[in-house]
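=== RUN LOG ===
request id: a7f3
mode: sequence -> structure
chains: 1
length: 202
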Amino acid sequence: MIEVSKDGDLWTVTINRPDKANSLTGAMLEELAETFESAQSARAVILTGTGKVFSAGADLEEARAGLATSPLWERLSSAVAALPGLSIAALNGTLAGGAMGMALACDIRIATPGAKFFYPVMKLGFLPQPSDPGRMSALIGPARTKLILMGGQKITADDALTYGLIDRIVEPEALIDTARDICTDTLAAKLEIAAGIKGMCS
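=== RESULT ===
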């Protein structure tokens, strides 16, 4: 359910469970974490999904059994954030719940016009993963972060672009090509130069 393709130094990681809205099981989270931990030599990584939803977050049955508070979420987002090369979340649709963390940890987020963004963790009785509020607040500010995390608001792609939660809205058929195009200069550079620029932007 996690597919990885490599085109030279460009990796594309795809969540492929469209019949379950790409909801994530513990095994899928672990596979994603291991994939990103092993991608440290990649110059660029694109993270995307199949179907019309990027990810609905935790698989409901496993969430009830404890997955919602698993340290695997934080392990995954930390692995994404640690990539020395460029990381792009190519969001093919709605991004919800704990799946927000890995997208927030990417360097760039692009999304399709119909995507929505929400993180109903408080309503479900859980705290968000430790790094998620800080990363979200760095992008959109503390008030809008509270609007999502405490106000339970669903944000449209247009609002997400205005807020700075995403960086571009792209039609579905052009999503991956756009992500690949953004990676072009990074792929042509030395990894240490790309990593150096990335560090200077932090």
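=== NOTES ===
The mean pLDDT is 95.
The beta strands are 2-7, 10-15, 44-49, 53-55, 86-91, 94-96, 108-111, 116-118, 155-156, 168-169.
=== END ===
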